[in-house]
Each structure stands twice: as structure tokens, then as C-alpha cells.
UniProtKB/TrEMBL annotation:
This is SPFH domain-containing protein. It comes from the Bacteria. The lineage of its organism: Bacteria, Bacillati, Actinomycetota, Actinomycetes, Kitasatosporales. Residues 35-197 form the Band domain. Coiled coil: none annotated. Residues 231-250 are annotated as: Disordered.
Amino acid sequence: MADITRRFGWRHLRSAPTAHIRHHKRGTLAHDGRGLSFWYRSLSAALSEVPVDDRELAMAFHARTADFQDVTVQATVTYRVSDPALAADRLDFSVDPDTGSWRGAPLEQIATLLTETAQQHTLDVLARTPLAEALVDGVASVRDRVATGLAAEPRLPATGIDVVAVRVVAIRPEAEVERALRTPAREQIQQEADRATYERRAVAVERERAIAENELASQIELARREEQLVDQRGTNARREAEEKAAADGVRTEAEAARKVRLARAEAEAARATGAARAEAQAAWLRVHGEVDPATLHALAATRLAENVPRIESLTLSPDVLTGLLAKLGRPEGGAAGRPEGRAGA
């Protein structure tokens, strides 16, 4: 919007470089161009301001596909006014000479024209396209069709409007239909996730089985080595017992041989001792045989006295004493008058 200032009943207008100003004074075109600045009287001036910069028009409208599904189309159309004079003649771009604001709504008229034209071509395309295809390839086809349709629309050049670009942002179905369409893909993704989970679990089970087999093989190998160890220990114990038995046998044989030799030596010694004793006994008997009986009796009494206990006193009756003296060859009278006697050893 142009800047308008007041000075003593006059008005001064200063426009932007992107605005085309047309000033009519009493029906005559006084000023026509961009970025103008001039003085004028409000009672005799008719002003028009036409923007000539590129403008973005966002639009959203509903359409129906070939399978009777409602979709929402979001698009953006870039346009500009290429012929300001023609646009000012066809549309109301007049501004208030005191405030500089538009008296009408020319941009809304252009937006309605572009939106209805684009919607018409969009409906024509989507009405022949199924929903699935519209969601996949609909953006490109709708964009091309809307661009072609706007370029061929006769009202736009007649109004001095050029379409610079057409962009289709999205084509979206209803929320329930969109959720239903997402379900197969989600299920497939879930199946892929489940399959990956199952494969991971299968790999884990396989690895656990391999670990268990390795542990079992290790236990089997350990048991086999323990069996070998037990066998080796048995063999060693048996060999040790055999060696010990052999050593005991040798020791026993040596001890028996020693005892036999010792017995033989003792027998020889006993035999020699016996022979010597026999000879001594024989000699003793020969000696005793050659001695008279009285001597033998005396020797016997002496030996008896050597072997009997010590006797402090002995009491003999007269009869016994008489008999004993008789045996010793003494007269009986020698003991008369002595009924008791004492002997000491």
C-alpha cells in the first residue's frame, strides 16, 4: 500500500517499486508507472495501485477419486500481474486518495479465479484416478494438469495475470481411510519385524545349542580323560602291588633262607653242644662209676646241700638220728644221752 501524506489540502503519494500506480486527473491519465512519487488533490484524483511482484496463493480443496473416496488436495500457485493497465481495467484496484487503501478486494478476486480454475482441473484428473494410484502418482499428474489448465485459461491473459509456477504439496485421504491404507504396510512391517525377531531367536537358539554341544563334548572328553586317568591309576596300583608282592616274595625268601641257615647253624651248634654234653656226661658217669659208693653219697649230700634253702635249725628225733648215724657208719652209742640235736648249714 502506498504512503500518503497531507500538506495544506494537498496529498503526496509515494509508492513501492513493486507497485504500479495509475493516476487519473479529471479523466486524464496523469501518472502511470512503478515507484512513483507525486502531489495531487484528492477531490480531482482517481488512483489505482496494482502489485506487480510474485505472489503465493495457497489453496486446499476436496476432490473425489474414481472409487468414490474423498481426498484433500493442498497446492500452491505462484502468479504475478504482467499487465497492470489491463488488470486495472478488468479488476477494481482503485485506492482511497486520502488513506491509500483499496476500495475493493482485487487480490481475493484473483485468488478465487485461480483456485476455482485449479480445482476444476484437479477434480477432472482425480475423478478418473483410483485412490491408490492418486496417492502414489497423483501429485505429479495433478500438478501437470493444473499447470496446463491455468496456462490455457483465457481469463488469465485477458486479466493481465501470468502463472509462474504450480506446486502440489499433498493429496491426503480421510483419516479412517488413511489408517486403513496404512494397516497392510504396518502389518507387513510388523511381519518383517517378527520374522527378524524369530530369526534372531533362532540364531540365538542355534548358538545356545552349539554352546551346549560344546559343553557336552567338553564333558565327554573330560569323562574320557578321567576314565583314562582311573585306568592309569589302576594300572599303576596293580603294578605297584605286583612290585610290592615281588619285593615281599624276595624278602620272604631271603628271610626264610636266613632262618633256614640260622636253624641249621643252631642245629649244628645244638648237635655239637649235645655231643659235648654227652661226652661230658659219659666222662662224668665213667668217673662216678670208678668211685666207691661212700664218695658218691658224700658228693650227693654236698650237691643237695648246695641246692636246698638255708636251714637255721633242725630238730631230729632219736629214732631218726639213730638211723642216720647208722647209715653214716657211726656207732649208736655216740648219740646216747642226746635226744635232740642241732645242725647248721
